[in-house]
Specification:
By secondary structure, the protein is mainly α. It contains 6 helices and no strands. Bound molecules: zinc ion (ZN).
Amino acid sequence: MDCRDIQKMFIPFINEELSIKDLGKFLEHIDRCRDCREEYDIYYTMIMGMRYLESENNKTEFKINSEQKLREAEEHILKHKLFQIGKVVLLIIICVAVIIVL
Ligand SMILES: [Zn+2]
């Protein structure tokens, strides 16, 4: 995935519309690519600024800055991964239980 693909994801990212897979790729790239990171900061500020002006109700949303937004997304991925691991563990427990019962 190159910088242009990542930059196309800015708006879906801000709108929280990216899939977990894309979100992972997005965060990974943003973390190591300075150009995209800077672009993202500008985009985020611009979009949130516009939304703030459009709606009076978005005041709380605007308080979250671009950096926080990235950290939140990382947490979201982490939780998703833990959830996946949790599902596998549960499946193993069920399998073991079935084997014991049989
Ligand atoms: Zn890049």
